[in-house]
Amino acid sequence: MSETILIKNASQVVTVKGYSEKPATREEMANLSIIENGAVLLYGGKIAAVGTEEEVAAAAGGRLDGADIIDASGKIVLPGLVDPHTHLVHAGSREDEFGMRLKGATYMEIMESGGGIHATTSRTRAASAEELFFEGMKRLDSFLLHGVTTVEAKSGYGLDWETEYKQLVVSKKLNEAHAADVVSTFMGAHAVPAEFKSDPDRFIDLIIEEMLPKVAEEGLAEFNDVFCERGVFTPEQSRRLLEAGKRFGLTPKIHADEIEPYEGAELAAEVGAISADHLLKASQTGIERMAEKSVIGVLLPGTAFFLMAESANGRKMIDSGVAVALSTDCNPGSSPTVSMPLIMNLACLKMGMSPEEVITAATINAAHAIGRAGKVGSIETGKQADILIANVPNYKKLQYNYGMNHTDTVIKKGKIVVR
Ligand code: NIG
Ligand code: FE
């Protein structure tokens, strides 16, 4: 494989340029920057030029000799998709609970009776690091096949240091071993473990005093996340944990207002979280505060779909000035999928987002939500050569065909990884 790749004849190159400094909001989210009959030159793992074929040829100079040529006639070129919220590293699956939910049991009832996150915690505690790594590699392969080149990964199925550590080390190894980039988040506060059921505050103390320092010391994660939800962690406990994480250099994220309104969006604004995720039940005040404080709304319409709940109001958030990103929430309980293309369909159909907004949300805004917008999420000179070629003649068709995977070719750091 050559160091140089020229993608040419693309019916559209969707660059999503111009938002690397600051996430796109409102009209910006609908402004994709499209080059008709475009070309992209990749060199040394980076984007070397983008424009019309003549422009790119002029910029290429002698570098085109021996280049790999990809003819993208009838296809579109996009930035590799970014998934900013997953529970990538876990053991087992929960189709038994799916059956129970189909008969009327709720997600929280199942969790309160010892299933749900607790069930996956038992399986993950029992699994070896090798097993978790092997499963993670397969899942990442599947992400790549759906055009996703960067994936955030949370711990949170240990709820004890030994297993949280195992998950974070596996995430780190996955990042090294797999073509996809993996960005780690510590989520020790994903559920109250049975051992601490009668005193959840003590579990928060344990995370703050014993786990956060080790996560920071070993550089195991960049973000600190919490499931702020009635019956899990209160806003007070969440605030304490996220503020403590900040002192260790970990940027806050929150699972906010997923099942019930609980002022999670407000808390995200208060602590200066990089993102608040879920937001199905976020209040108008919470949405306004997020917009004021530039907290990104990471929306997970697949989770709402799979939990048979009403989706977050993406339309209202965008209209209120919130920068919205999209994610699969890939996890064994509330969203067992890796399909960003399906999430993008659902964002249009269930949240009133336009195809343009959806692409911005799944690329540059998603990159912002994990602190990677300087590197990925748009097709701009100097950025990492992470590219998705989709087998559709225009970007609108990507949203119009639902439940389909139009991924044709995926390039990661200048290497063809799916073809
Ligand atoms: O984002 N809400 C909490 N955490 C995950 C679900 C995890 C699980 O059920 O295993 C979520 O929905
Ligand atoms: Fe989640």
TrEMBL record:
Q: Which cofactor does it need?
A: Zn(2+); Fe(3+)
Q: What is its main location?
A: cytoplasm
Q: Does the keyword Metal-binding apply?
A: yes
Query: Which residues take part in binding Fe(3+)?
Result: H85, H87, H255, D329
EC numbers listed for it are 3.5.2.7
Tell me which residues bind Zn(2+): H85, H87, H255, D329
User: What is one cellular component GO term in this UniProt entry?
Assistant: cytoplasm
Protein name according to UniProt: Imidazolonepropionase
